[in-house]
Structure prediction request, 203 residues.
Amino acid sequence: MSSTLPPAPDFGAALPVSPSVETLRFLGLRRSASALTLEAPAPSPAELDDLLRIAVRVPDHGKLAPWRFIILDGTDKTAFADHLEALARDRGDASQVAKLAKLRTPPLAVVVVSHVKPGAIPEWEQVLSAGAVCANLLYGALAMGYGANWITDWYSYDAESLAFLGVQPGERVAGFLLIGSAKEPPLERERPDVAPLVSRWKA
Prediction:
C-alpha cells in the first residue's frame, strides 16, 4: 500500500497555511477507543511508516528529536507480555497481571520513549515534546480509521520491565500507543467545562 500522505516537503519549503474544517471536526469529535475493543487488522507496515512520520511533526525546541519508538507486535508483543506476567506472578501481584489485558489485546503497540538530551533546551520542554509525539500518533491512527489508546501502566515505570524492553537509564516511557481495529464504536465520555479553567490576565 502506498502512502496517503503528501510527499515530505524539502527543508525550507513554504508550507500552506489554510483552514481545515475537516480537521476541526475530527478534533471536536475525537475519542480514544478502549484498548480491550481493539483487534486485527492493525496498520500495515506502510501505514505504520506514515504514522511515525506524522508523529514526529511536533514542536521540538532545538530540533533535538528527544524521543524514539519501540514497536511491539505479533509474537514479540506476546513474549513481552508473557515476561511481564511472569514478573507480576513472581511478585504475587494479581492486579498487575490483570492490567496486562490492555497490552495483550490490541495487535500493535508503539512505545514512545522520552530521551532528554543535555544542553540549553530545558528538560521539561523535551518531555512535553515526547507527549506531543504520543498525541500526534494517537490522532494519526484515529484519522486513518483505526482505534487507538494512549496508556501508561505499571510496566511503564517498573525498572525490570523497562530494562527488558530496552529502555536505557535516564530514558522514560511517555506512553504505549495501542492500535488496532475497533470492534465497537467508542462512546462519548464526560468532558470538562472549559469556562472554569480559563482566566484572562490583565495589566
Observations:
- Strands lie at 38-39, 67-73, 108-114, 147-151, 172-182.
- Residues 123-143 form the longest helix (21 residues).
